[in-house]
Write a structure and sequence with these properties.
Elements (H helix, E strand, L loop, with lengths): L10 E2 H9 L1 H9 L8 H19 L1 E3 L2 E3 L10 H20 L10 E8 L4 E10 L5 E6 L12 H15 L5 H4 L12 E8 L4 E6 L2 H26 L31
Parallel strand pairs: 1-5, 6-7
Antiparallel strand pairs: 2-3, 4-5, 5-6, 7-8
This protein binds iron/sulfur cluster.
């Protein structure tokens, strides 16, 4: 098998997460390019994201009221349709808290960044402008977060990935979003939000310095490990079954369980 050494010059949030969870899974997915089996969670996530992205192109606001049908079937799948209904209700309530519609409509949605010098790439779900002029990163997660008081640490790290990615892109604010063209510098990204349409829960918290410092350290470590593993694999010094280490309990949920010798260990 030929491996393109330049393929991992830019690392996505998913690649970073996969390598942290299980380097062997990273190898199967991104080096050997064995597709993951589509499961229910992936299917629901894709369908919900398709709707949520389209929603802000369609929704109108008149006299402070959101004009959007609620009792319509937007998806033939009842579970996804319920999530969409929750999302519409949530956005309607959110609008009531906004002093201006410019805070209701996201600044950017599904926006792609490729940042060579930071070796990062990714597509950000949503960036909102806060009333104090700062920014919030919003990610939609279709899993269950009932009873959670704070954002789980792995999602905190995902948001931090995107914050670092956006802040290191070096683009003028107006190039990131036309709605930022009046800003001479990119406003600070101060908050992260995880919105789960399943229970219509929004978990919000500020970015903390120690989270960002820990992220930089971990990201650097992962880059070094990826580069080393790729180099040694290309040079024939290691094989996936010998060296790329495996990780325990995740095997139960892994698409590669059937082909992975690591799962048997
Ligand atoms: S089965 Fe386990 S060890 Fe193998 S790739 Fe999946 S998570 Fe990693």
């Amino acid at each position: 098998m030929t491996i393109d050494p330049d393929k991992f010059k830019l690392i996505s949030k998913s690649q970073f997460g996969q390598f942290k969870n299980c380097p062997r899974g990273f190898y199967y997915q991104y080096v050997k390019k064995i597709p993951q089996q589509m499961n229910r969670a992936m299917y629901v996530g894709i369908r919900f994201h398709a709707f949520s992205n389209q929603f802000f192109d369609l929704v109108k606001v008149k006299d402070g009221e959101m004009l959007f049908p609620r009792d319509k079937d937007f998806d033939s799948d009842p579970e996804i349709n319920d999530m969409i209904g929750n999302f519409i209700d949530f956005e309607r309530k959110f609008l009531e808290t906004c002093s201006d519609t410019k805070y209701f409509y996201p600044l950017a949605r599904e926006i792609r960044f490729d940042v060579k010098h930071a070796r990062m790439k990714g597509i950000v779900d949503r960036i909102d402008l806060n009333e104090d002029g700062t920014l919030t990163l919003v990610e939609y997660k279709t899993g269950s977060y009932e009873g959670k008081k704070e954002i789980p640490s792995y999602l905190r790290q995902e948001h931090t990935f995107y914050k670092v990615l956006i802040e290191s892109c070096g683009l003028p604010p107006g190039d990131i979003s036309p709605r930022l063209k009046d800003f001479s510098v990119l406003p600070e990204i101060t908050h992260m939000v995880v919105y789960s349409p399943k229970e219509s829960i929004a978990l919000a918290e500020p970015f903390k310095k120690r989270t960002i410092t820990a992220f930089h350290k971990r990201f650097e470590e992962v880059l070094v490990q990826i580069d080393q593993n790729i180099k040694e694999t290309i040079e024939g010094e290691i094989s996936v079954d010998d060296i790329w280490p495996a990780n325990g309990y995740l095997c139960n949920y892994c698409s590669y369980f059937g082909i992975c010798k690591g799962a048997e260990q």
